Amino acid sequence: MNPPTGRQHAPEPVPSTGIATLDDLREHLQWAVELEHATLPPYLCALYSLDPERNPEAVEAVAGVFIEEMLHLVLAANLLNAVGGSPRLDAPELLPPHPRRLPHGDASLELSLLPFGDAAIDMFLHLEQPAPAGAPAEGDRYETIGQFYDAIEAGLRGLCDRLGEAEVFSGDPARQLHAGHFAHTAGRMIEVTGLASALAALEEIVEEGEGTSRGAVWDGDPDVHHPDRDEVAHYYRFQELRAGRRYRRGDTPASGPTGEPLGVDFAGVLPMRPNPKVADHAPGSEIRAAQEEFNRTYCTLLHLLEQAFNGSPRLLAVSVASMYQLKAQAQALMRTPDGDGATAGPTFEYVPPEERGWGAGDEPQRVDVLPHGPYLVRGGIPLRRKRKIVSAENSALTWQTGDALPTEPVYALCRCGHSRSKPFCDGTHALIGFDGTESADVRPYEELQHVHDGVGISAQRVGELCIHAAFCIGRTRPIAEMLAETGDSDVRSNIMGRIEHCPSGSYSYALRRGGETIEPGLPPAIAVLEEEDGLASALWVTGGVPVHRADGRPLETRNRVTLCRCGQSAGKPLCDGTHRKIDFREEAPGPAGGAAAAQGEAI
Q1: Could you tell me the residue ranges of all domains in the chain?
Q2: Could you read off the pLDDT of 136-176 as tens digits, one per residue?
Q3: Contact 221/205 with Cβ under 8 angstroms?
Q4: Quick one: fold of 22-277?
Q5: What is the DSSP string of 338-391?
Q6: What contacts 65, CB < 8 A, 6 or more positions away?
Q7: Are 303 and 90 in contact (CB under 8 A)?
Q8: Could you give the CA distance from residue 40 to residue 65 in angstroms, rounded to a whole number?
Q9: Distance CA 115, CA 561 (A)
Q10: Residue 527: which of 380, 439, 405, 419 has the closest Cα?
Q11: Which of these, 32, 42, 64, lies nearest to 201 by C-alpha position?
Q12: How far apart are CA 101 and CA 411, in angstroms?
């Protein structure tokens, strides 16, 4: 395979690169994931501190860099997956206190959480500085990011020469993220399948930071915000912001930017306190509570990204959607006075999963309700469609099971009712500002039930769980009226059959009052329910799969639970039958939209 042109290729690997084995390569690519992630918090602080009305051009510049750094993170994960690694993001070592150095970088490369201004621009110029001509590859304690990626390139080439491409690129191709997963970037989203594509991914990362051919101002892509003009590399974008002028054709790194003015109002910046920390404020204080909420949201983002990188790529759209919450929370902090003329700011501190509320459960199979977001389904729980079969008189008879829907190891199901990829989430909840506040009664079933005895049967009912699927009504009389006739075994059998078809378990039964409840044998699964005339109904969770609310309180684990998916239930996350009142329908499956189509707006 011929490598892509346009870069000065590093020499064959030498001991100083530290990449002599596949394990070395995977270790360094994990460092690359950590490196690309480390750039995100400083860029977000600078971006969110900018007043978009007074600094629209600076907002576009910093937002464009951030979006491309997200692309670099995805490319680093693709590289690591391609060589049989497993990217890690949701880990405390990825969020050490700021100021901090780049992972395994030179100690002089230090990152801080700063508002936009001279100090932030100096930091970004140091971060993105091009490697000097002829600079050696550096696998550890690297002086520039370009030298670090040169070491990875040298390691890749050397290992392929010695072991062969097939041995090096042994990862599962299904883990590769592609352009359909990551939209709204002028850069190239490259699936890594061999040496040529791996070198192309490395080239994309370095050129967007340093410029084409190591010394040119341009990165070879169209401008993400203005596709009609060429885009300058990250380092030179910050040179433009420093000089207040754009680069134009013919300009060089030596000449600096000589083009049209670029307006920067340094007074139009929120004065965020540098490197804030949660510990700076008393427990329970307004600022500390807001910072803790931001950190939970950010760690949720890391968790979703890690799942997306490890076999569930559809979750990338869901993770991008969480940026909407992150942005609102950060900007609210930056508008909160924090004394001495400064405002508060986000701290980007790690929150353990057990302290995030929704992530408190440790069951291998479970459903987590994300705050104002979708249902996150873990453990490979099968997903199928079930259609209600009705009589000629439109009475409920039974459920017909359809084919299994293809899923990933972890998948997200729509809770807002507006996804264009139902039943899966596509991030639309963030675009529409979905309010997923939960109000379901969390008391045990036994405390809520009303018991009605018959002969040889004791019927138990919890009205709050009813989704109005109508199996309890029957063709003639409801169950409540039939209990007096249960001395007739046919009547009793009829009641038992109807109760066992009740999807929510609103009705259950025992053979006598206080006896053991008899439940149908239902496997751990989730069914997407469709009722008569194509009416879209609830998500039917069966087989005792635990459901954890976003606030951390678990729902009682039962054999049958029905979750709202129209977004309008008054008892979220449980279904209350509102889908019938609003005539909720599931549109024909279409291309994923939502947040994936508006990533720039999320940033």
Answers
A1: 22-277, 363-587
A2: 999 999 999 999 999 999 999 999 999 999 999 999 999 99
A3: no
A4: Ferritin (1.20.1260)
A5: -STT-B---------GGGSSTT----SSEEEEPTTS-EEEES---EEEEEEEE-
A6: 43, 124, 234, 237
A7: yes
A8: 10
A9: 47
A10: 405
A11: 32
A12: 34
Query: What's the CA gap between 105 and 552, in Å, rounded?
Result: 38
3-state SS track over 496-550? HHHHHHCCCCCEEEECCCCCCCECCCCCCEEEEEECHHHCEEEEEEECCCCEECC
User: Tokens in use for 269?
Assistant: 């910046």
Residue 72 phi/psi, 5° resolution?
-65, -40
602 has a pLDDT exceeding 80: no
Query: Comparing C-alpha atoms, which of 421, 424, 402 is closest to residue 413?
Result: 424
Summarize pLDDT for 376-401 with one digit per residue, the tens.
999 999 999 999 999 888 888 899 99
Least confident of 254-268, 306-320, 577-591: 577-591
Three-state SS at 43: helix
In angstroms, the Cα distances linking 370 to 322, 366, 374, 594 are: 10, 13, 6, 17
Chain centre distance of CA 424: 13
Task: Report DSSP state, residue 266.
Answer: T
The three state secondary structure string of 62-113 is HHHHHHHHHHHHHHHHHHHHHCCCCCCCCCHHHCCCCCEECCCECCCCEECC
Beta-strand runs (E) in 147-254: 218-222, 230-232
On whether the CB atoms of residues 602 and 430 are closer than 8 A, the answer is yes
What's at 459, amino acid-wise?
Answer: A
Q: Residue 458: in which H helix or E strand, if any?
A: strand 458-461
